[in-house]
Amino acid sequence: MDLEFHYYITYLIAVKAGFKKSAAETLAYASQYIDDNDYIFDISPETPAHYQNYISQTKDIIQPRKKLFRIYPIFHFIPGNPLQKSARRKDGKLHYLNTIPANQNANRILAEALNSHNIYQIGLAIHSFADTYAHQNFVGYYDTFNSLKGILKRSPAKIGHASATHKPDIPNLIWQDKRLCNLLATRNNKALFLQAAASIFVKLKRYNQPEVSNLEVESETKELIADLTSAIGETTTEYNFFKNTLSNLLKKGSRQQRINNYRALALKEKYGGQELAEYDSNKWLKQILEDTFQFKLFKLLKKFPLLGLGIEIITDKIKEIFSFDLSLNYQWKDKLTYQKSHWYKFQQAVKEVQARSEKIIGKSVFSKMDLAKF
Fold this sequence. Notes:
Oligomer: single chain
Number of strands: 5
Helix content: 40-55%
Low-confidence stretches: none
Structural class: mainly alpha
Number of helices: 13
């Protein structure tokens, strides 16, 4: 899934489940920001306010840093029971790290986040839980298990759904996962995304209103799904990676229309009745970092990710070969109040959820494997 679900749809789910607008927006922003939190900041070095964050995503899918493999099975590909019916493949292969929709580990991670009553942790866990639907039957690890037939079959892009490109994340796409048995090969993303939305709504509704009746939950869930069904619109089997990527960058095409539909729903009373701002991946950072040359450059690289990826690869190689670090340093706007900011609280939540999730998944999955890269 991408920002359509993680930010816009998650916001709609949250406000309908009883969160106030400000809390719902923070939850939804945290849910999406997992995917944009792909840069290690070194802030105010050599001062008492020195801080470094953990990343929860990496834009270098083809050659991700080995030490950061921890982010995939925790934040994007939570493994479940590999014997699940939905995971049956033509070749009969099984994998302990296989992502299974709404699996036991994902449910426990979300339950622990809800028990924390920390809105940032809840957003993080909802992202991971939702991704178990979109990323099902892929593993967050280098493995030919992920490889689909076609142009990328022999490429090194064998982590997660890289060989399927963006197909698993598009809300209205129907596509074929030919690794699976014939009866399971057709992937209807819209149906899966609506299942995820319904499941998350029920959990958040009962979190906010523990005494709510089953009848009320069922009625509101049906209403939510009907509204989202209309907002997502007609399904399609047409997909072109380059055209899709260009349309996303230019904010054109059916994706932008769907986003407009989600924002229109937000204006309705049952979804908070207030305007939902368009997602800005730098919003939280702009609130706490000084607008120095370094930060201006960072925002430029975020706006043009391919340029940023190229520069990151070059600087990493220079550091590896010459031991010369070109990493940019940053400064807090206010060293006395930064710990109250959304960005700082989100980063602390990343560290807490990671530590807790490693224990949960480690006991049920990692303990059965010998994975040197983790």
